[in-house]
Amino acid sequence: MSMWQAKRGLKQRCGKFFQRNKSKIRFSRTKMARPFRIPNVLNKENLQKLFENIEDPEIAIGCILGLFGGLRKSEVCNIKTENVDLVNLRLKIENSKNPGKVEYGYGKDRIVPIPPVIIGVLRKYIDYQTNSKYMFPSIYNKETPISKEHFY
């Protein structure tokens, strides 16, 4: 509804009041506050500070995958080594949303491209992780993924 339509509707409904008082309605426009804008990407300085402060190479590789692949923290923790395709530069993410409801058909799977820049690092890391089905295994049990709390 435009300002003119609102003014006209008020005059029609309250016509006798306006005829008696000979007054005019003035609507003031209020300025809406602009929302604070969050930057879309990290700049070079922020990325350098982030990776300079990471001491564990496992955490660094997880951060690289998360940042450049757009992955959630839980998705990085649950990556299986069989789902990393270094030949076609693809990473299959299984059961990313609603992870507890796979048996009901709610789990979401997706394919994420792997940036060519990190292929060498990933290849060396996967060769290093030979006896686990998860890329980031748990500290206590190699057959389960690392928990989000241990992954910082």
Helices and strands, with pairings:
Elements: H1 3-13, H2 15-21, H3 44-52, H4 57-69, H5 73-77, E1 84-85, E2 90-93, E3 110-113, H6 119-128
Antiparallel strand pairs: 1-2, 2-3
The coarse silhouette is: elongated
Q: Any low-confidence stretches, pLDDT <50, length ≥5?
A: none
- Chain-averaged pLDDT: 78
Overall helicity: 25-40%
What structural class is derived from the secondary structure elements? mainly alpha
| Euclidean distance between termini CA atoms | 51 Å
Which features does this protein show?
152 residues, mainly alpha, three-stranded antiparallel sheet, 3 strands, elongated
Descriptive account of the structure:
The model has no long low-confidence stretch (mean pLDDT 78). Strand 1 (84-85) and strand 2 form a beta hairpin. Helices cover 36% and strands 7% of the residues. The protein has 152 residues and is mainly alpha-helical. The chain has helices at 3-13, 15-21, 44-52, 57-69, 73-77, 119-128, and strands at 84-85, 90-93, 110-113. The protein has a three-stranded antiparallel sheet, with no helix packed on it. The chain is built from six helices and three strands.
